[in-house]
Each structure stands twice: as structure tokens, then as C-alpha cells.
Amino acid sequence: MVMKESEAEIERDDPVPNFELRGTDEETYTLGDFAEYEAVLLVFTCNHCPYAQAKFDLLNDIAAEYGDVAVVGVNSNDAEEYPDDSFEAMQEWVEDGEIQYDAYLHDETQEVAKAYGAVCTPDPFLLRNEGHEAQRASERSSGDEPRDDEFTLAYHGRLDDALNPDDEPTEFHIHDAIESVLAGEDVALEFLPSRGCSIKWK
Known about the structure:
Pfam families: AhpC-TSA (PF00578). GO terms for molecular function: antioxidant activity; oxidoreductase activity. It comes from Haladaptatus litoreus. InterPro entries: AhpC/TSA, PRX-like1, Thioredoxin-like_sf, Thioredoxin_domain. By secondary structure, this protein is of the alpha+beta class. It has one domain: Glutaredoxin (3-Layer(aba) Sandwich), CATH 3.40.30.10. Helix content is 24%, strand content 22%. It is built from six helices and ten strands, in the order E-E-E-E-H-H-E-H-E-H-E-E-H-E-H-E. The protein has a seven-stranded mixed sheet, with helices on one face. Strands 1-10-7 form a three-stranded antiparallel sheet. The chain is globular.
């Protein structure tokens, strides 16, 4: 196990890369499939990493608590070298109820992880839906020109202050970030790198 901390590659408010990935339900997803949500919490994660497993419950709770936020897990690990991260194993984690995200996607080519600059599991990216009506209304009222239907980076960093799998969190940074996005505000948090196992590159 190689511990790694996330790195800032995409600037806040910049458009984020789209993707086309297969989900555990055998459906193909793009960012456009989440256009009904005000925000998407895109988390590069996996099945076997203890750092990732320690955040399963938090992510499941966010998916259940926030109707306007889609929680999307992306597994980019090399499944040939790490069979615990195979697509079939991903489906088992979902079927067993351990993972209850809005979607759990397989980045088999690892191109999406590279496009986002993801390096560890978990590596969370909170995306703001600039095309959502609530966001467009906020921009109109502030005098800004509403943007087209696109997702931009609102926050990239740790989910909470529990950096090790056995730590108990006392601060939930992601809740603060989500509340800011849903209120149409900028996220005030500075970049705090997430920590986890390195993504297993091919």
C-alpha cells in the first residue's frame, strides 16, 4: 500500500472534463446524466483501499441526505493487478449495500482519473452545475451572465479531517462545501489534500 495525497490540477471555477463510463448497473453515464442535480460529488475511489472504505458510510449518507447532490464514485484502479477492484467486485459491493452512491463507475482506461489529476483513493471533486436553474437564477440576480449547461470545479480536497482509516472525524469539510454550493456561494475552504492509497496505474 502506497499512501498518497491529492494534488490540485484543475482550478476552481474551471470547467471539468466530461466522461463516458460504465456503471455497475451496466448503464453508460456522462456528466449530462446528472444535469438535474445542483452539484455532483465525484470521488475517485475503489473497493479494497482502507482509506476509501473508511469513507463509504460518509458518502452513502451524503447520497441519502442531499437530494440535490449526486454522489458518483469512480474506480480507476488496474483490475488485472488488483482483482479486488474488478468491475464484478464493484457490482458485488453495490449489491451488498456497502456502496449506495447514485452511481459507481468503472474508469477502465484510467483516462478520466488522468484528466482530473486524481492520484489517490479517495480523491473527491465537488462539481457545480452551472446550467441548473437555481444557479442560473443566482447569477441573474447578481448581475452575472448565466453560463451554459456545464459543470465547474467548486471544491477539491479532503472529505473530513480523519486522514487515517481508524481516525474519527471531527470536522466535515465536504458538508461545508456542499452547503456553500447549494446556497449559490463560493466555497471558502482552502485546498486541503485528501489522503489515501495511490491509484493503481497500469
